[in-house]
Amino acid sequence: MKSVFQRPSLVSAFIALVLLSPLTPRYSVSAAESKAIEALNQLDIKGRAPKTGYERAAFGSPWSDVNRNGCDTRNDILFRDLRSIIFESQRDSCVIVSGILEDSYSGETIDFIRGRSSSLAVQIDHVVSLSNAWQTGAFSWGSAKRKEFANDPLNLQAVKGSLNSQKGDGDAATWLPPNKSYRCSYVARQIAVKNRYGLWVTPPEKKAMIRILSSCPNQQLPAR
Questions:
Q1: How far apart are the first and last CA of the chain?
Q2: Range of the domain at 77
Q3: Cα gap 63→55, rounded to integer Å
Q4: Does the residue 59 lie in any domain?
Q5: Secondary structure of 49-103 in the HEC alphabet?
Q6: 55 within a domain of the structure (yes/no)
Q7: Which of 9, 33, 59, 104 has the smallest CB count inside 10 Å?
C-alpha cells in the first residue's frame, strides 16, 4: 500500500545543505543590497567563454546525495516543490511515485506520476544551466565546486518537462518562462545564483535582465 507521510529528518538535512554549504561564494549580497537589480550590478560583464571541454560529467554524477540524507537531489527537489506527495512505501521515503506541481514556468497544474515516460512531465531545471555556468566562469572551478553548483537547491526547480527541454542552456536573453508573472522572480533567482558563485553575465543577458526588472524595480533576491 502506498502512503502519504512527511520526512522531517530529511527536511532538516535538506535545510542544512543550503545553510551550511562548505564552499564560500566569491560574492555576498548584504541585506541592504538584496534587490535583484543591485545584485545584478555587482556582476562582471563579459562575453561567453568557449564551450570547449564542457560535459555534464564535469559537474559530477547527476543527482548525487550531497547532503547525505539518503535521498538524491532530484527526489529532494521533488519533495520540496510538489504537494500531495505519495511515496512508494514507508520503508523508502525517497522514491516519490506521484504528486502535484504548481508550475511557475507555465502557470499550469501538472500531475507527476513516476514512470519511464510519465516522469518526463515534471523535470528539474538548473535555473542557471550547467552549460551557461561553464561559459560564464565555471570552466575554471574545481570538481567539488561544480558538484555543489549542480546540486544547489537555490539553482534547482521542478518545472514542466517540455519547457525545461525548450529552455536548454538558454540565458535570460534567449529564453524566459511563458508565464510572464513569474519572470521577475525567475530573473532574480538567476542573479542570486550568479552572485553566489561569482559567475558573470553577458551584455545581452544583462540587458534582458534589466528589461524584465524594469517592471519590478523592488524585486528581491530569493531567500536561500
A1: 36
A2: 8-48+65-213
A3: 15
A4: no
A5: CCCCCCCHHHHCCCCCCCCCCCCCHHHHHHHHHEEEEEEEECCEEEEEEEEEEEC
A6: no
A7: 9
For the chain, what is the domain count? 1
Let me know: does 37 contact 218? Beta carbons within 8 Å. Answer: no
Q: Is residue 184 predicted with pLDDT exceeding 70?
A: yes
Contact by Cβ (8 Å): 103, 109:
yes
Name the 3-class secondary structure at 43.
coil
Q: How far apart are CA 149 and CA 59, in angstroms?
A: 8
d(CA 200, CA 197): 9
59-95 pLDDT per residue, tens: 998 998 998 988 999 999 999 999 999 998 877 778 9
Residue with cell 514512470: 115
Q: What is the pTM of this model?
A: 0.85
In a domain, 176, yes or no: yes
Q: Is residue 224 part of a domain?
A: no
| Nearest alpha carbon to residue 1 among 71, 100, 87 | 87
Total number of residues shown for the chain: 224
Classify strands 156-160 and 109-113 as parallel, antiparallel or unpaired.
unpaired
Cβ 199 vs Cβ 141: under 8 Å = no
* Digit-coded pLDDT (tens) for 98-144: 999 999 999 999 999 999 999 999 999 999 999 999 999 999 999 99
Please give the grid coordinates belonging to residue 189.
Answer: 533567482
